[in-house]
Amino acid sequence: MAKEIERKFLIKGEAWRALAEGTMYRQGYLNSAKERTVRVRTVGDKAFLTIKGITVGATRAEYEYEIPFADCNALLDDLAEKPLIEKKRYKIKQGEFTWEIDEFFGDNQGLIVAEIELTSEDQKFDKPDWIGDEVTGDPRYFNSNLIKHPFTRW
Amino acid sequence: MAKEIERKFLIKGEAWRALAEGTMYRQGYLNSAKERTVRVRTVGDKAFLTIKGITVGATRAEYEYEIPFADCNALLDDLAEKPLIEKKRYKIKQGEFTWEIDEFFGDNQGLIVAEIELTSEDQKFDKPDWIGDEVTGDPRYFNSNLIKHPFTRW
């Protein structure tokens, strides 16, 4: 079990694309209720099941377990809520921090967001030029909500 | 992934108690929707997360993963739907089959059911004297429903 503190931002321009290769993610929810989110996803050639509790401030309980890749694909195809989320994730190291940029496809095509993980809610960090407006508290950008109300229908 | 075929019966009398020691189970659901049931439970000193799909006939897709015992207790206490199910399970071998008897506590105190796992839906088996009426198809006895409508309130 670990606590995660994340802040989320929109992206400006294309300069970030030169800084990282991306990895494909394919994911779906076995429960998208915020009290007990259960997510399954493939990350490149690995697969994980992740359970998250309710968010208190910017802090959320998280439990993650690696599962067999073939199981995960069957769970995504047969059991998970639809539509699935498909995205390419780019990790860009800037000083002591790593920005994670998600470029969405499918029903969320056109959406690109950047996340940074912090060790406390008030920790200071530098914003690269390609970081835009903060959307941390905006529920439209929660992964679970991008299934129910995808970006192309906003 | 494995398919399971189970038949469930009520119990008659107390003769079965002399045939096995029991093991305590404590379990709850992260999703009790029948399309994608997600269960966490402790079995003695071990812990498991189990995902099941929708039942077709007496057959159901099942995926089970062992997880850390401390994680499971935190998931049960903090995240799982309430009330939890607490029961003692007795395994009684009879010829080639093993009967699993569940004696429930808490809100389901007084309920005792026996299950047998088969390799095909029409496989033959002997019924011990202490096996009563079959309740395989009765949704009241599904573990997920024993949370929403516990035995003591029937």
Automatic annotation (TrEMBL), chains A, B:
InterPro entries: CYTH-like_dom_sf, CYTH_domain, NeuTTM/CthTTM-like. It comes from the Bacteria. The active site is at 29 (proton acceptor). Residues 2-148 form the CYTH domain. This is CYTH domain-containing protein. It comes from Desulfovibrio intestinalis.
